[in-house]
Write a structure and sequence with these properties.
It is a single chain. The protein has one domain: Glycosyl hydrolase domain, family 43 (Tachylectin-2, Chain A), CATH 2.115.10. It contains no helices and 26 strands. It is mainly β. The structure holds beta-L-arabinofuranose. The site of beta-L-arabinofuranose has 14 residues, from strand 5 and strand 19. GO terms for molecular function: hydrolase activity. Keywords: Carbohydrate metabolism, Glycosidase, Hydrolase, Polysaccharide degradation, Signal, Xylan degradation. It comes from Sphingomonas echinoides.
């Protein structure tokens, strides 16, 4: 398998591909200067799920594509149909863009919208988890989001999809966390276009809301957490609620858009604490909450990334080379919500374990 390695230049300590340097704006339309530069410029990428496998860094992003579909609350403009994997030896080093690792045409059950993926490794096999709409049709003429799994002997793929989505899966944005005891958990879900609000009663409501439950004084919809079976291809139980509590121990309410869960779960463990991180969607923050159990509940701690350029914000956090890193995305290359580019910046903690908030623009 041959991969194309494109020359890199160093900007702000982060590798940037040498293509089209003269066309990359160094300031946002409002004049603010970016904190970091796109990891790659040869394709549009978003929703970066980073992992260290056998000493190398792999990023499993969404592969954004141009479309004439206008922006809407369902996210129809995010019309992605395949995945490409990014690889680098170290943060700041050259980035390899892999070939197509999985295309929707190779997934028997899926129809469209290959959204934010994640990956895991176990016993010589790499697992790619991905959401996509199935072939059913709802009131909007669209399929229901399910979560699929595909496998490969290489972290770059190509991946072979299982014939059916994971039984019991729904909604989107899978993120798989493996604890020190070897047990793996999938965190998933997203409201609005991610359809979580249509699953409130455990089955899909085809006529449900396209946004949320419109119950601002009730506990917010939560992301989901479920333990994976040892085969890494199936759920060991019915998904549970990943509850986020405020400092008084009360659930965050649906109307609290600065703090409630919207999409983009990611979990990591540090100092014995589980950090449950997520996006607030329409208020554009990346938030975190901590707990002492992978199932939660998690106590809300704050924002750790202020709004980026673009509507969505989605991320992953890894530790490598003795430092913690935040992979995120904005729209520096296109200034279009659906054509994003992934970035990386260092993440720092205070002595009490709280995260130092990051402004994606330099003061
Ligand atoms: O990339 C499509 C969707 O936008 C993702 O699944 C969400 O997390 C948001 O980033």
């Amino acid at each position: 398998m041959a991969y194309r390695v494109i020359g890199a230049v160093m900007m702000c300590g982060v590798a940037t591909l040498a293509l089209a340097q003269d066309r990359i704006p160094d300031r946002a339309p409002d004049g603010r200067k970016y904190l970091s530069q796109p990891l790659v410029t040869s394709i549009y990428t978003a929703d970066p799920s980073a992992h260290v496998f056998a000493g190398k860094i792999y990023v499993y992003p969404s592969h954004d594509v141009p479309t004439a579909i206008p922006d809407d609350d369902l996210g129809n403009e995010y019309a992605m149909h395949d995945y490409r994997v990014l690889r680098m030896d170290r943060i700041g080093g050259p980035v390899t863009v892999g070939p197509v690792a999985l295309d929707v045409k190779q997934v028997p059950w899926a129809s469209q919208q290959m959204w934010a993926p994640d990956a895991a490794y176990k016993n010589g096999t790499y697992y790619l988890y991905f959401p996509a709409r199935d072939k059913a049709r709802d009131k909007n003429g669209l399929g229901t989001f399910r979560i699929g799994v595909a496998t490969s002997k290489s972290p770059m793929g190509p991946f072979k999809a299982e014939p059916k989505p994971i039984a019991g899966s729904f909604s989107m944005d899978p993120a798989v966390f493996t604890d020190q005891d070897g047990k793996s958990y999938m965190y998933f879900g997203g409201i609005w276009g991610g359809q979580l609000q249509r699953w409130k009663n455990g089955t899909f409501d085809p006529n449900g809301s396209d946004t949320d439950l419109h119950q601002d004084d009730q506990p917010a919809l939560t992301g989901k957490v479920v333990r994976m079976n040892a085969d890494m291809k199936s759920f060991a139980e019915t998904p549970r609620d990943a509850v986020i509590l405020d400092e008084q121990g009360k659930p965050i309410l649906g109307g609290d858009h600065d703090r409630r869960f919207f999409e983009a779960s990611w979990v990591f463990k540090r100092g014995g604490h589980y950090y449950y991180t997520y996006s607030t969607g329409d208020t554009h923050f990346l938030n975190y909450a901590t707990g002492t159990n992978p199932y939660g509940p998690f106590t809300y701690r704050g924002h750790f990334l202020l709004p980026v350029q673009g509507w969505t914000t989605h991320h992953s956090i890894i530790q490598t080379g003795g430092k913690w890193w935040l992979f995120y995305a904005d729209t520096q290359l296109s200034n279009k919500n659906h054509l994003r580019n992934v970035k990386v910046t260092e993440l720092s903690f205070n002595a009490d374990g709280t995260i130092k908030p990051i402004d994606p623009f330099v003061k």
